[in-house]
Each structure stands twice: as structure tokens, then as C-alpha cells.
Amino acid sequence: MDSLPPLRKLQYVLAVARDLHFRKAAEKLHVSQPAISRQIREYEEDAGFEIFHRDHHFVSLTKAGRAFVSDIEEILGRMEGDFTAAILLSPLCRFAALRWICSGRNFAISPCVFASFQPPNF
Known about the structure:
By secondary structure, the chain is mainly α. The chain has helices at 6-19, 22-29, 33-47, 63-89, 91-101, 111-116; strands at residues 52-54, 59-61. The protein is built from six helices and two strands, in the order αααββααα.
């Protein structure tokens, strides 16, 4: 069983899809290129389809990969909206979500969310 959370693998897929380059995606995510390649290959094996065409010089999305990446972007975009709503509604949720967002491995968030942040009183 793989210990890497599925969301992380999806972020790897998105990063490679955006750059169509494994090394550049790995640098942006602060992981090694072999690690990101291995995780995406394992994800493709588990999913039962190839997301990327690979050769020694080029990376491109397969037809299934383009559809998959589009769906991932939509789903993760909705998740970001849900976190934003949680931040605005609850001090404790604000604290937890801000920690998640500030982990450096997630999506950018608007400055208005940070302006609304107040740490909880423990």
C-alpha cells in the first residue's frame, strides 16, 4: 500500500500537465524528478490508463489524460473554494485551513482570505 496521499499524486499530475515537463514540475513541488515520475506512473497503473505520452525528449497528455486533468482542475478548484468558505466562517477552521494552505504545496489563495484570518484562542 502506498503511503502518499491521493491528493498529492493529483497535484503531481497537475504540475506535470501544466509544464509538460517532469523536471520542472518536480522543482516547483520541491521533490525529486524520479519520485514524481514514479508516483505518476503508479497512479496511472492504479487508474488503468496512461495520463501522459512519454519519450526521451517530450511529454504530452493523452486524450484520456486531457479529460482527467480537466476534471482534476475543476474538483480541486471547488475544494479551494470550500476551504476559503471554511476560513471565512469559522476561526478554528480558518486556523486549520490556513495551515493547510501555507504548507507550500497547495494552491494560491486570495489576499482577502488572509485579511480575514484571526488565530483561534486556545
